[in-house]
Amino acid sequence: MYDITVRRHALALLEQGLTISDVSRRTGVSRGALREWLLRTEQNRELYVHPHRVCPRCTALPRSPEPEDSYAYLLGLYLGDGYISPVGDRTKMIWALRIACADAWPGLIEECVKAVKAIRPGNNVRTIQRVGCVEVNSHSRHWPCLFPQHGPGKKHERKIELLPWQKKIVDEFAEEFVRGLLHSDGCRFVNRVRRPLKDGDRWYEYPRYNFTNVSLDIQGMFTGALDRLGVAWAQMNATNISVAKREAVARLDAFVGPKF
Ligand SMILES: [Zn+2]
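# zinc ion complex -> structure
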């Protein structure tokens, strides 16, 4: 333990621009302690000046991103159709989160922008018109902290696993997570079936949801969340999962679509 006057003196020297080694030599305080004081001071300053810029994951005591419901939704969108890539010079460690929003879901772009802003309120969010979709794009140093599934190559070519803190959020906000996954990689469509009857043909409509993702890990997260919510599903083939039972579709309609 060091005396508070020693600590103040050491921090003042660091403020003047002396290196940690210099200050350690002059004051006798260990370099480890100096480093920690400096980090804590910087974090406090950041918290005081820009509370919204502080990353919940790379602070001394990591916590869950908030609001957790927005995070669960954004995680679903990201796992479905998002990616993280470095911006410009890699040494700056700035990353772009890009989420492709197709027009299959009305209001999706606004929803996506809202979720990005809720999770990183200090960063700008842009929308960029691309061929066939609108990209929601936001730059931050902290996207890899918030979405540690980030990595080189395509998501289906590597193992995608949720960390325990993400798992906890996804379990608690399973509806938001499923909603995000379906908004990025799913669709709702209506099967129309004709039944010939004595007094003429009658048409029946069967709405259903379809989720398409090549990654078995992401499929597993989707079906795991559906199980948690008690929504019946069926594996159609290697990449497609279908929700077609009447009560299961009604359950999804209550929080995913057809309108929101
Ligand atoms: Zn961070």
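# post-check
Residues 45 and 51 are 9 Å apart (CA to CA).
The chain is about 45% helix and 20% strand.
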